[in-house]
Amino acid sequence: MKQPIELRRTRDFGEIINDTFTFLKENFKPLFTALLALCGFFVIAGTATTVLTQTNLMNMYTTKIDTNSYQAATPAISYFVSIMFNTVIIVLGQLSIYLVTLCYISVYLEKKDGKPTLPEVWGFFKYYFFRILGSGVLITILFAMGIVLCVIPGIYIMTIMSLIFPIIVMENTSFRYAFNKSFTLIKDNWWLVFGVIFIITLIVGILGSIASVPMSIIVTARLYLSLKGFTLPFIILFSLLQNLLTLAYALSAIAITFCYFSLSEQKEAIGILGRINAFGKSTDGNNDLPAEQY
């Protein structure tokens, strides 16, 4: 049996990126089983609202009506209503994907051996959902304030705030504690965390473009070419693909959590102390210790 990946240890930039993909590879099946089971609703709902948004966008530009009548505003209203619903679904979906991944890692850390099961991840997900949702609202407000002040403060704040979710889930703590600790952990390490976020976001963005770029081309072509009966099936297909690819946000959650473990180990050495304690309690003299101990 493969030894579980040691989560609580210091890593440099390259190790964080490499171990992110190693963890994803070794846990792909159980992790994505949990993601599809717990976030599948958002994938389906996101697909439906994306299709509705794109068709309303086409109707807004192709429907010929009297501009002086009430009906002139109807396509635009339909489009903006659908895009609002789509945005809410996508945000909740991304939040859920992020949380499911964090819960999976937390169970993985707690079990020490063996893969987390769906009921275990679901139990953690229920426990943390509203705490993470509320924290997400507060983070969004803080980020918006940073952007209003200037773009650079917004980026600086968001990099620090990225550690809040892992701290809340891994330490079962409050937003206030996680907020304060994120500043402590990131001290002298801001560029490391920013670099990881930049690279992973770039990868996730490229994956997302696999669906979004072709769909944009199809919708644009529909405005100028006669593609009736041909457009909708492709919009449905690429909308489904686009929403399935949001599961790639799990990669971001894994990478940020590895940042958290590395920075936490630098400051607190929890993993080293845990292994020392475990070694002291060992009675059989073998080296078959779990990868993580508290």
Give a verbal description of the structure.
- The chain is mainly alpha-helical and 294 residues long.
- It has one domain.
- Helices cover 79% and strands 0% of the residues.
- It is built from 11 helices and no strands.
- It has helices at 13-26, 28-62, 74-111, 118-149, 151-161, 164-171, 175-186, 190-224, 231-244, 249-268, 270-281.
- Helix 2 packs antiparallel against helix 3 (74-111), helix 4 packs antiparallel against helix 6 (164-171) and helix 8 (190-224) packs antiparallel against helix 9.
- It is globular.
- The model is unreliable at 282-294 (pLDDT under 50).
Summarize the structure.
With 294 residues, the chain is mainly α. The protein contains eleven helices and no strands. It has one domain (13-275).
What order do the helices and strands come in, and which of them pair?
Blueprint: H1 13-26, H2 28-62, H3 74-111, H4 118-149, H5 151-161, H6 164-171, H7 175-186, H8 190-224, H9 231-244, H10 249-268, H11 270-281
Structural class from helices and strands?
mainly alpha
Uncertain runs are 282-294
Rounded to an integer in angstroms, the radius of gyration calculated over CA atoms is: 22 Å
Write the H/E string, N to C.
HHHHHHHHHHH
Overall geometric form? globular
> Counting H and I runs of at least 4 residues, what is the number of helices?
11
**pLDDT averaged residue by residue:** 83
The percentage of residues in β strands lies in under 5%
Helicity level, as a percent range?
A: over 70%
The largest sheet, given as strand count, sense and whether it forms a barrel, is: none
